[in-house]
Amino acid sequence: MSSAPFSRLLRSAAFATALLGVLPAVHAADAAPTADAKSGKPDLDLPPLSEDKTIHQTIRLNGKPFNYDATVGSIKVRDAKGKVIGEVVYTAYVVPGSSPKRPVTFAFNGGPGASSVYLNMGAIGPRRVQFGAAGDAPSDSSELQDNPHTWLDMTDLVFIDPIGTGFSRALEEPAKAKADFFATEPDIKYLSRIVYDWLVKNGRLRSPKFLMGESYGGYRAPRLAHELQTQLGVGIKGLIMVSPYLDPAAIGDDTALSPLPWMINLPSMAASHLEAQQKLTPEAMHGIEAYTRGQFATDLLAGRSDPNAVTRLVSKVSELTGIDAAIVSRLDGRLDSNTFLRELHRGDKKIGSVYDANVTAYDPFPASAERRSGDPILNALIAPSTSAMVDFVTREVGWKSDALYKALSYEVNSAWDRGASQDKPVSDLRQAMANDPKMGVLIVHGYNDLSCPYFTSALILDQMPAPMAAPAHLAVYPGGHMFYSRDGSAQAFKRDAQALFTK
Q1: Which residues form a coiled coil (predicted)?
Q2: Positions of CATH 3.40.50.1820 in the chain
Q3: Mean pLDDT over each residue of the chain, to the nearest integer
Q4: How many CB atoms lie within 10 A of CB 60?
Q5: Which of 109, 221, 121, 216 lies closest to 165, judged by CA?
């Protein structure tokens, strides 16, 4: 979950986003905190975090017992003067007695303001709680079950919660924390150092290293890879981007001249309509993608120069999406995602999720001219995922904290400074791939995701220089942003990922 989904959802729900912050000089180190040079005290007088805790656990995987160590621990973040300004809490799953050359994967979610619980207990961790599918509710059980799709048999796993999420925290006053943590540039600097420090702390610098980022974590991942390669001396064997938020400019303003905002949404809308009819196939989507690149883009750019362009747009968009032609006509063929999600299910007085258009909830205000409710998936997953994670950390592992666990932090998201470098993920991805042609790249999406539509990644890869694009693979699965909540898609995802780990 991430910036694209989280931020676009906040905007659609009429939340304001404040963009504040400046670039600090920060780094992390595993050492005791130092006092402020003037006062002799830290900025904030907070209770100390629990010591790192490790427990031994067993799950059944492929019909056999599978043993591993689960650790909840923390790594400190220092500024340029050595003062501790934050503490990052992580959850690691490591197979004991393995070779130091066993792969290790570092996983990040996004938001900004999301903890890593979604990849941990929804996708690839050894145990999971169900969320992200139709019918989920906040009151569903938060009891963890063995995850048959865990990646722990391929790689050790380290799930990192950025500052302000999970139990990770700033040790500064709020205004300073905004500048030091809640902006795109310092975010990459301190998180790359967290990866480095974990490797040193655990003697794993010889291990093949992989980075995974979901949504805004997909914005982070290529930037972290480039930073680690060129600034910290850590090579990355493989890069996995899950429903990534790669190109903020492509989302853009729906009134802008560029046809991209309309182009990237249309295939996912069409996929949702096809799935509802049980007609979704890769072959069907190839034809829709070809139309989107061709006649659709041409008619969008034609405007009034071609009197028939809008007529063609209205007819085809209505056919592909299932939205009434009268509604599409009022929009001149430019169907936005909010209108699509409401109108697709209006007859049932329901609203679709931006994370998966075919996951719905009752619209509490069906007579309202505008949507006034939250997202069906987001509203349903917060309770079971938060309860499951806190119970695991505090009761099972025994890592105690009096703090509130933040699965999603609206405060972090609203404070985030996105800066002017909106093209940095794609630029850093190109540079990281050029630096290391042996680094594998896997980009994965769900067809029905309107928060980070898959067609953005398809267009980006198509613009890559041919020799560089060779190690990159794009896979699209049934489902939405969290396609891994569907067993078939989770299985396919793991099969595709195995190629990176056996390369």
Answers
A1: none
A2: 3-249+381-501
A3: 88
A4: 10
A5: 109
Answer for the pair 254, 334: CB distance below 8 angstroms, yes or no. Answer: yes
The tokens describing 40, both together, are: 């002799």
CATH architecture of 3-249+381-501: 3-Layer(aba) Sandwich (3.40)
Q: How confident is the model at residue 271 (pLDDT cuts 50, 70, 90)?
A: very high
Q: Do residues 381 and 361 make contact, with C-beta atoms less than 8 angstroms apart?
A: no
List b or e across 314-328, with b for residues whose CB sees 16 or more CB atoms inside 10 angstroms. Answer: bebbbebbbbeeebb
* Cα separation values, 258 from 91, 336, 337, Å: 42, 14, 17
Which tokens hold the place of 67? 């043993």
Specify the residue for token string 């722990």.
152
In 46-183, alpha helices (H): 117-119, 174-181
Q: Which amino acid is at 281?
A: T
* Number of other residues whose CB lies within 10 A of the CB of residue 17: 13
* Cβ-proximal residues to 35 (8 Å cutoff; 6+ apart), any chain: 41, 42
Ramachandran quadrant class, 292 (left: phi over 0; alpha: psi -120 to 50; beta: rest) = alpha
- Tokens representing residue 225 in the block: 């890879």
- The pair of three-digit structure tokens given for residue 148, joined into one six-digit string: 């048959």
Q: For 327-361, what is each residue's pLDDT tens digit? A: 999 999 999 999 999 999 888 999 999 999 999 99
Phi-psi region of 4 (alpha: psi -120 to 50; beta: other; left: phi over 0): alpha
C-alpha distances in angstroms, 55 versus 71, 117, 399?
7, 19, 10
Q: What's the token pair of residue 171? A: 């040790």
Closest CA to 378 of 410, 335, 339, 337: 410
Please name every residue paired with 351 in a beta bridge, in sequence order, or none if there are none.
361
Q: Which tens digits make up the pLDDT trace of 74-87?
A: 999 999 889 999 99
Q: How far is CA 301 from the centre of its chain?
A: 32
Across the range 408-436, mean pLDDT stands at 86
Q: By the 8 A CB rule, do 105 and 241 touch?
A: no
**What per-residue confidence (pLDDT) applies to 282?**
96
Q: What is the pLDDT of residue 396?
A: 96
What burial class does residue 178 get, using C-beta atoms within 10 Å of its C-beta: 0-12 exposed, 13-18 middle, 19+ buried? buried
Give the SS3 label for residue 502. Answer: coil
The residue among 159, 178, 172 whose CA lies nearest residue 78 is 172
378: confidence class by pLDDT, cuts 50, 70, 90 = confident
